Structure to design on (619 residues):
């Protein structure tokens, strides 16, 4: 089992180098190669789901706290599963979609490099190593955003590059301060040493630098300016990856790991509320801004800001139920937002426009895209029996339980807002009579349909499974086997150190 | 102490440039300054006045060695960080050149295809 851990980093990184050299190879071969790699990673991630104990792998046999260590616990298993699932479906979607671009091998190479970064961030137990993987994923995403090399793409990529690199530098500054304070970089050891210290302004400053670092990646509202440009400019499968898992891994996962496991809730209880406030502001602002958009993908991007706000808000509640709700919404949002971005890609593929006012009645000619998009809409706006309903319900219940009644009411209202702007998408793009100019369009190729159907089916299956919540929070299979171990890690807090360091 | 103050000033200069300047090239240079300020800070953490290289020679007193040798770890880390900074800067410059080809100017205020 231990030998699997480095494979999550080695396989995509090796594949990236091979793909980079396959520039002249036939597209068919490149497609097969990339899909086999992501499929293999998905299989490995599924194999890990049953694992309950904490597995550590010391790189080069240097034991922690001296060497770099890979750590697999409930939270990592959960994130690995989501990341590799979405990346597999995104590469299947790319087979047909990326034919429009010339350099397919280069696209896959960058994609694999991004996947390396994401898997690395999830698995590593060393804070500087985390920064390095963080940057690998980021640099690959800058390239992917600029992949179309038109004016908009280049502009978006430059803006994204500058904003997120500056905050990465802040993150590095925070890590340097941590090193100065404790003299260690291993996260488990770090948390042990920090626990013994008094709360000081220096620690507060460090925490705020780190929060700036990951909040930018999570696009919480004061840090969100890059997202509505960058996500729509990327090719659709990449948008699905960026909105579906990139934001969550580099933003939310890193935040959870650092705040809950390294620094500890009790250590920074005075600043913990900032997460609630940031989350709520993002929730409301993202929703309101999405309402006014006419560009399909831009609307989805603003909706990502809003939904990530929900996750951060639920995490900020700091109760076990809040953690479950946050993780459940994280998984659900990854699935339906990936679905909706792939839908927008399918629409763009067929009609060659992203302007909602130029579409209309697409359901008639593109039944699969139309139906899956309806499923996505119902899920994200929280209509039973789809999965989004249950996670939003849990978030609201958790907020009420924690005594945050005002926030709970805001969360309900934003949910209505979400329904409003997604109904707008449905009405403009899919319902009604088809326009004259679009009468020649065809349904997208099979490989693209497969991704859409699988994601839509997952929305429904997880939603139906979650009916078990009525019998008890741990009754549904998905929550019991996948979310519960991840929640345990967060509840455990700084005891994380004891599970990682050798006895 | 003075080194740290200078380092923070350098950091502030870089941050000011990134936020205020409207020229692509100046933004890129400012980012470079910002990055180097943090690298410098990291190096200073391991710095000792009149320190020796952290290589232990045979027969050296261990306590004395620990007291005098500089901390090698920040240097190794900064090396990695410089390489990352290099990658980011190269990408920024490459995209900047492409943008110049498209618009014929380095002024970010004139690149307004995207709204907010």
């Amino acid at each position: 089992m231990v030998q699997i851990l480095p494979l999550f980093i080695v396989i995509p990184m090796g594949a990236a180098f091979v793909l980079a050299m396959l520039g002249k190879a036939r597209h068919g071969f490149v497609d097969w190669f990339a899909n086999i790699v992501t499929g293999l990673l998905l299989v490995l991630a599924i194999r890990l789901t049953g694992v309950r104990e904490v597995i550590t792998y010391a790189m080069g046999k240097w034991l922690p706290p001296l060497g770099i260590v890979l750590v697999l616990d409930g939270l990592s298993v959960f994130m690995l599963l989501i990341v590799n699932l979405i990346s597999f479906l995104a590469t299947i979607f790319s087979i047909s979609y990326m034919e429009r671009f010339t350099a397919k091998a280069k696209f896959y190479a960058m994609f694999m490099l991004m996947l390396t970064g994401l898997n690395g961030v999830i698995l590593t137990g060393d804070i500087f190593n985390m920064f390095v993987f963080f940057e690998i994923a980021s640099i690959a995403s800058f390239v992917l955003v600029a992949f179309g090399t038109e004016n908009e793409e280049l502009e978006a990529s430059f803006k994204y590059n500058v904003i997120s690199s500056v905050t990465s530098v802040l993150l590095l500054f925070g890590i340097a301060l941590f090193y100065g304070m404790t003299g260690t970089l291993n996260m488990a050891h770090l948390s042990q040493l920090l626990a013994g210290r008094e709360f000081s302004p220096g620690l507060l400053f460090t925490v705020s630098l780190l929060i700036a670092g990951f909040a930018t990646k999570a696009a919480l509202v004061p840090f969100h300016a890059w997202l509505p440009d960058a996500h729509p400019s990327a090719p659709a499968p990449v948008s699905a990856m960026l909105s579906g898992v990139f934001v969550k891994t580099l933003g939310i996962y890193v935040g959870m790991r650092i705040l809950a496991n390294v620094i500890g809730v009790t250590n920074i209880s005075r600043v913990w509320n900032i997460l609630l406030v940031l989350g709520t502001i993002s929730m409301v602002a993202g929703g309101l801004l999405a309402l006014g958009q006419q560009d399909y993908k831009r609307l989805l991007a603003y909706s990502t800001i809003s939904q990530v706000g929900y996750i951060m808000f639920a995490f900020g509640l700091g109760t076990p139920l809040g953690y479950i709700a946050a993780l459940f919404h994280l998984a659900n949002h990854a699935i339906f937002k990936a679905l909706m971005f792939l839908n927008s890609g399918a629409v763009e593929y067929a009609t060659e426009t992203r302007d909602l006012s130029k579409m209309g009645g697409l359901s008639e000619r593109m039944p699969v895209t139309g139906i899956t998009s309806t499923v996505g809409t119902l899920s994200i706006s929280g209509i039973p029996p789809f999965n989004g309903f249950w996670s939003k319900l849990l978030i609201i219940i958790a907020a009420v339980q924690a005594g945050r009644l005002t926030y709970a009411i805001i969360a309900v209202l934003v949910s209505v807002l979400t329904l409003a702007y997604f109904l707008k998408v449905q009405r403009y793009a899919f319902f009604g009579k088809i326009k004259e100019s679009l009468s020649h369009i065809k349904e997208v190729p099979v490989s693209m349909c497969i991704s859409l159907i699988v994601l839509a089916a997952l929305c429904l299956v997880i939603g139906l499974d979650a009916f078990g919540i009525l019998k008890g929070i741990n009754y549904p299979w998905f929550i019991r086997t996948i979310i519960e171990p991840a929640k345990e890690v967060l509840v455990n807090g700084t005891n994380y150190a004891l599970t990682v360091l050798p006895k | 102490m003075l080194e740290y103050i200078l380092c923070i000033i350098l950091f502030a200069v870089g941050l000011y440039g990134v936020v205020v300047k409207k020229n692509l090239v100046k933004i890129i240079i400012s980012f470079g300054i910002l990055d180097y300020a943090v690298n410098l800070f990291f190096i200073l953490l391991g710095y000792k006045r009149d320190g020796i290289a952290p290589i232990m020679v045979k027969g050296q007193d261990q306590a004395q060695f620990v007291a005098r040798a500089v901390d090698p770890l920040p240097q190794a880390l900064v090396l990695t960080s410089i390489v990352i900074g290099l990658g980011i800067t190269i990408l920024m410059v490459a995209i900047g050149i492409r943008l110049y080809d498209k618009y014929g100017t380095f002024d970010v205020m004139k690149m307004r295809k995207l709204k907010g």
Observations:
- Chain B touches chain A at residues 11, 15, 18, 24, 27, 31, 34-35, 38, 41-42, 45, 73-74, 77, 80-81, 84, 87-88, 91-92, 95-96, 98-99, 102-103, 111, 113-114, 116 (CB under 8 Å).
- The CA atoms of residues 31 and 65 of chain B lie 38 Å apart.
- The mean pLDDT of chain B is 89.
- The helical segments of chain B are 2-20, 24-45, 62-68, 72-103.
